[in-house]
Amino acid sequence: AQSVTQPDIHITVSEGASLELRCNYSYGATPYLFWYVQSPGQGLQLLLKYFSGDTLVQGIKGFEAEFKRSQSSFNLRKPSVHWSDAAEYFCAVGARDTDKLIFGTGTRLQVFP
Amino acid sequence: NAGVTQTPKFQVLKTGQSMTLQCAQDMNHEYMSWYRQDPGMGLRLIHYSVGAGITDQGEVPNGYNVSRSTTEDFPLRLLSAAPSQTSVYFCASSYDRFSYNEQFFGPGTRLTVL
Questions:
Q1: Is a pLDDT exceeding 80 seen at residue B90?
Q2: pLDDT on residue A40
Q3: Spatial separation of the C-alpha atoms in residues B18 and A77, rounded to whole Å
């Protein structure tokens, strides 16, 4: 079965600084990997996903993520954070042999002006 | 398109009461699911459905029942509420059962059980 770990519970950055949120997964074959964002009081929205092809994927709102098989990672990056990026970010993993999506515990991003 | 809708937005129950959380989608999606979100635990899958008439258990199914009589609706029933079921509940849908598909989430129901 697949699993996913987000090691950082809470991250604080200044507006304009770069951002990297970590995600590590566990699965024997090529996983399907996702990043979702949850703004306060809202449901989740897909930022980007990877399931094959180019290991660097671009998403909405200027985010990107890189799939690194050797490190079992799928870290989310943004070169310059905006105050509106303050939210909770969830990494999720799916797989060919399952119809379930497993979510990490989330990373809460706080942005200071 | 309304997307995924959930009712109610907020609910307070007493221990032992029953209730149904409603979820509907208008995208003709085959796959629907229920998650609960608790602090520090992320989203955990309760039950899911790969099509009308088909349901299955997720990670934390105990205390919850579901049914899927139509493609559009996927209600979640709490038969006898317990304080441990205090949580935020999200319904989601996706095109079909394959987990590479994007899931679309409803706005959530915040449930408190006293």
A1: yes
A2: 87
A3: 44
